[in-house]
Amino acid sequence: MDIEEITNSKGQLIDDAMNDVFKGNIPNLYDAIKYHIDTGGKRIRPILAILTYEALGKEPRNIAPFAAACEVLHNWILVHDDIEDGDKMRREKPTVWVKYGIAHGINVGDLMAHKVFELILKSDFDEKTILKLTEATMTAAIKTAEGQAMDINLRDNNSPTENDYMRMITGKTAHYLTLPMVGAAVAAGSKQDMINKMIEFGKFIGPAFQITDDVLDLTEGKGRGEIGRDIKEGKRSILVIHCLSKCTKEERKKIIEILNKSPEKTSSADVAFAKKLFEKYKSIEYARNKAESFAAQAKKIADTMPRNLKEILYFFADYLVKRKK
Amino acid sequence: MDIEEITNSKGQLIDDAMNDVFKGNIPNLYDAIKYHIDTGGKRIRPILAILTYEALGKEPRNIAPFAAACEVLHNWILVHDDIEDGDKMRREKPTVWVKYGIAHGINVGDLMAHKVFELILKSDFDEKTILKLTEATMTAAIKTAEGQAMDINLRDNNSPTENDYMRMITGKTAHYLTLPMVGAAVAAGSKQDMINKMIEFGKFIGPAFQITDDVLDLTEGKGRGEIGRDIKEGKRSILVIHCLSKCTKEERKKIIEILNKSPEKTSSADVAFAKKLFEKYKSIEYARNKAESFAAQAKKIADTMPRNLKEILYFFADYLVKRKK
Q1: CB of B245 within 8 Å of any CB in chain A?
Q2: Are B149 and A107 inside 8 Å of each other by CB?
Q3: Contact: A28, B127; criterion CB under 8 Å
Q4: In terms of domains, do B170 and B289 share one?
Q5: B133-145 residue pLDDT tens
Q6: A72 and A148 share a domain?
Q7: d(CA B46, CA B69)
Q8: Is the confidence metric ipTM above 0.90 for this complex?
Q9: Do A24 and A112 sit in the same domain of this protein?
């Protein structure tokens, strides 16, 4: 599957649906939304919804509003996350709150969060189906917020365990990442058994995604203008947790000290120190193996699905683990 | 109608519905929600939903989840508003972001925003009705966010007109304030004509509410620990707009200067100067008259409604304009 080719052929459907609900002309609101959405190009989530719906034998046009809703959901969560994490750059550009201020940043996210439901309610499905889509979306947003609270809490934890970490990332990602597929299956009238399998798939692919994210921060930089931003933010990444479980008492003291500094006070030398320690204890290798093992477990679930769905799930699993940003 | 008596008799229904969806034990999330909701006691919005539903001949228990949803909607908007406005006190207590930090503050609001829909989806109505309630709620939230963007924008406007102000407050309050009644009418299967009248009522009662709010900031303090907080925040209140339209060029320059200072840099002398100017030009009197005139217009719409509904709308109009906080 070639993601660019698919984006070219399906992108318009998604953009049309989004443009349909973002038509207002209030300054620092609809322009800010357009600014934010235009910074990200691949539209992997809505494409996943469309591909799944097609694989289930349905006409892609009908799922377009829900597919767009998945993209909007993804994007508003990023707008708020960037404020919560103090991230100034996203996809190599200033984040919404940096460009428009924190007040507008919060409000922009709030409007988008509700536009998600406007899109779903616009779908041309029967009422039962629309309600199910609303419920699946709301559930994903709630689980993500619960995971985010655990994530913020973990940053004050000086003895974080892999168990804490797994609970947090599973909460944050499992439902959220699989929503496009789950919604497409709901809309196509698939049996609950298949939907459950997709959520189960998410419980493995979500952690695979997040662990890959942790590694990318230290290797590629994730479009945030620097390498090792997570260290500055004090994130208890899988690298941190693994390293803490292996290092000496002195090293432990030093690394916690670095993580607990405010981002502005964390120096490049601090980041380099942490990185060196991760290398010493092979924490990056550990994380990569873990991500691959989760992806492999996710694929085992995909193996029990119909062939054309399996293909999509394999593609998604590979995409999440092998991406470079 | 005695609001305390009604709160005592219906409060439990509402609290039970809220407790039903706020059961998690993730620190800095569910405890923060409980903290915030417990600071406000009167539950005027959910009571309005219940009273309206009863007045339409229905059993109050069925509307309880939607009534609770209105209270949660109201409260999450306040959580985010307090961050956006930099308000440190609400209902005489530290605001959520002051107590739990900005990151948790945003996330708490996001979770609550979705719990609103969880409550609505839990209602024991048919699917069509639940969808209509979802749509009315989503629309109110969208209009409120649009109004909020205009509000934030207005603070950078040095020549604000009453027209700008009216557009902003009508956006921010008309749908939002009438949602409890509109939802109750939708759930009771009322005709569209009655629902339209309620929204029309909101277009007068919303401004009456907001203008009263502007006056209260300068007279009673609105539970934010000080008098004149709006001046510190640079809000273009009706008092500011009226005063600017009457005062001399010098006074105009001085008042804009005060409003454009950051809240920390605005002194008590600055607030006193503005207050004195509002008195000089009778801006407070102007605002009070305006609020009363809007309330009177709202009541004229109420006069065209069935007697027991009219009674509720009159009560609500009086409550909003005559309240002391």
Answers
A1: no
A2: yes
A3: no
A4: yes
A5: 999 999 999 999 9
A6: no
A7: 8
A8: yes
A9: yes
